[in-house]
Amino acid sequence: MSRLLLLFLMVTSVSARAEFSREYLDQQPLEVTPANxxxxxxxxxxxxxxxxxxxIMGLGASHVVWGDALVQGLEAxxxxxxxxxxxxxxxxxxxxDWGQPTVWWQLLKRQMGFEVDxxxxxxxxxxxxxxxMDVLEINNAHIVGASMGGMIAQxxxxxxxxxxxxLVSIMSTTGSPQLPxxxxxxxxxxxxxxxxxxxxxxxxxxxxxxxxxxxxMGRQMMAVFKTGDRSDAVATITAPTLVVHGAEDTLLPPQHxxxxxxxxxxxxxxxxxxxxxxxxxxxxxxxxxxxxxxxQKADTAAMSR
Length: 305
Description:
eight-stranded mixed beta sheet; two-stranded antiparallel sheet; 10 strands; 39% helix
């Protein structure tokens, strides 16, 4: 069973309630700071004098969804690990007063070429990330993002190149309209939970217990749609980049990861056969090793400048 299940596949079955370890993360005191005109919550783990890793979670997910194994593995490798709650999740500023978008209507507007309504964009969320780095006096960091978090990490790398030591984009996308869409099952599961009327209360309660915020999903989906295709910006990224994807990903098929790697010069693409839109137990140690080697190589390059 997966240690990390992002919301998209989690909602398809009640059996996805299986536990993953987050005891270590739950024991850590959550910090909250003013940043980018909102409040951002975060955890800062490890030695502040060591190189920093900033980790950004996906749609509707708080920092605990990373799970203990990956976070502790990175910390044990000698890194300071900073975990963010994106705006609208966890202890960060919530946008419930903005209301819930009518998802089908906003999707129709998008298909017709009109701008969708959203209280914020991925650019705002990238600025949130950099603002927390400012508060923590982190000049540059390894930025790691999963799914929507990968999109945010890409924006940070493109718009704030001086603040990034390396990029790890996990099961994410450039947002290019030429890429294959989700499978009908993955798309239906996502839409079913992002609207109050379509999701069973029991399923939503299970998600909340795992650290997800279903009520923020519609707004964050609109942030992704309003930001749109980021291919041109992604092509400007110069940071050492590791792109990770699952061969069995039905939400963002493997072509999404391949396109990201194709646009970023010198990047490395790793596709795991047994991985979907999740990080299975058998993949996690391989991913941890790959990420650590990638970051250490970037650290060595940074020190030699």
